[in-house]
Amino acid sequence: MKHGLLAAAISVVVLTVGWLGNRGDVAERADDVHYHAAFLVVTDDGVADFSAPAFMHLKPCTEDAHAELTPEEEQRERIHLHDGNGTVAHVHREGVRWSELFTTLQYVFPGPPYLYRDGAAVAESTFTPVQIDDRVLIVATTNDPTPELVAEWTAQVPTIEDIRAAESVSEGCGS
Ligand SMILES: [Zn+2]
Ligand SMILES: [Zn+2]
Q: Residue 46 belongs to what H/E stretch?
């Protein structure tokens, strides 16, 4: 009985140490986070174009997890664009929100943006976390869009196939 308790105590210690060890791994391997999501921004000027070189993340994603990054570099690492593709975002950290993409791009919406997922408005708008293979429409027009317009623009958001295609051509971050 006594041995049983000792064994139980040891296994608790082992499990706790293992858990702490894993937590460390997760923190150090933040660069392993890498997924993609599609977006389309519409303003009074029409569909916003983010394909210009100025919007692209040109250097490869950080390979050294211990590299010292400035706050700006860290923000850019979290979510960015590659390969001249202005509609598929690359996410490299946990818990990234859509709003952060536009921080990275230094893009200011002309008015309050409304974010739609699958044609339905999301209460958090751009503060909603970016999901794996997310496909969102962001509308910042003077007048509220009609359901017909939302449906029309939603149909223009890149598809899952488009996301897969963007991944396959990406040289910027080894995807
Ligand atoms: Zn990528
Ligand atoms: Zn990247």
A: strand 46-47
Residues with CB in 5 Å of ion ligand 2? 61, 90, 173
- DSSP count for the chain of H helices, then E strands: 5, 7
Nearest to 97 by CA among 129, 123, 133, 134: 129
Distance 108 CA to ligand 2 centre (A): 22
For 152-170, write each residue's pLDDT tens digit: 999 999 999 999 999 888 7
- pLDDT confidence tier of residue 84, bands split at 50, 70 and 90: very high
- Residue 40 has a CB neighbour count (10 Å cut-off) of 21
Q: How far is the CA of 60 from the centre of ligand 2 (A)?
A: 7
What confidence score (pLDDT) does residue 47 get?
A: 98
CB burial of 99-131 (b: ≥16 within 10 Å; e: otherwise) equals bbbbbbbeeebeeebbbbbeeeebeebbebebe
Ligand 1 centroid–CA 8 distance in Å is 44
Task: Please name which ligand lies nearest the alpha carbon of 164.
Answer: 1
Beta bridge partners of 42: 47, 139
What's the gap in Å between 167 CA and the centre of ligand 1?
6
